[in-house]
Amino acid sequence: MTTADQILEEILKQSVATQHAGAGEEEHDLLTGYISESTRKVFSTMCALELTEGHRTTSNDVPPGHEVLSMIRLSGGATATIKLSASRDLILDAASVVLGDRPLNINEDVQDFMGELANMIGGNTKKKIGKPDINLSLPIVEAQVSDQESTAYSVAITWETGDPSVSTQGIEFHVAKV
């Protein structure tokens, strides 16, 4: 192999490596958009709540005052763990749209509702990704008793991709309380 061939081969290797690095960031940006859009769509359709995207974060901590957490995992062609949390008032109001009456507390029906929200957000995200080999886990729901009162009327969603070069991402959504 001549020196020119070696140089050309090295340039091609660097080009391919750069394309793969860019593709990872591009895929991550797409995933962020898919999850955000899916979350807004599910809350609008199922709960009659219009979410406004607030600040983005790289923490997967549940915001203070969020008392319900549901999680769902995508695996296979795309990997992500999606965590949905909500303030007590917001999830009780949202559940009342589906259940007919506003629950007095976070009971089994509210927990089932949170699991279903995570399932719909995960399912919509999976559909938007458009790869046939993606699996969706069953949702896991935890009721948490927060020792911090929250005046926030909000929903937060975070996700991790399993890629150590990409940090946890999150968005807190706010809702105008009516």
List keywords for this structure.
178 residues; alpha+beta; seven-stranded antiparallel beta sheet; 25% strand; globular
Unreliable spans are 10-23
The main sheet comes to:
7 strands, antiparallel
Q: What form results from the Cα inertia axes? A: globular
Give the end-to-end Cα distance, rounded to a whole number of Å: 73 Å
H/E element sequence: HEEEHHEEEE
Taking all Cα atoms into account, the compactness measure Rg is 20 Å
Bin the strand percentage: 25-35%
Number of strands: 7
Please, could you describe this protein's structure?
The protein is of the alpha+beta class and 178 residues long. 44% of the residues lie in helices and 25% in strands. It contains 3 helices and 7 strands. The chain has helices spanning 3-47, 88-99, 108-129, and strands at residues 52-57, 66-76, 80-87, 134-136, 140-143, 154-160, 169-174. Strands 1, 2, 3, 4, 5, 6 and 7 form a 7-stranded antiparallel beta sheet that branches. It is globular, with a radius of gyration of 20 Å. The N and C termini lie far apart (73 Å).
Summarize the helices and strands and which ones pair or pack.
Elements lengths: L2 H45 L4 E6 L8 E11 L3 E8 H12 L8 H22 L4 E3 L3 E4 L10 E7 L8 E6 L4
Antiparallel strand pairs: 1-7, 2-3, 2-4, 2-5, 3-6, 6-7
Task: Summarize the entry for a quick read.
Strands 1, 2, 3, 4, 5, 6 and 7 form a 7-stranded antiparallel sheet that branches.
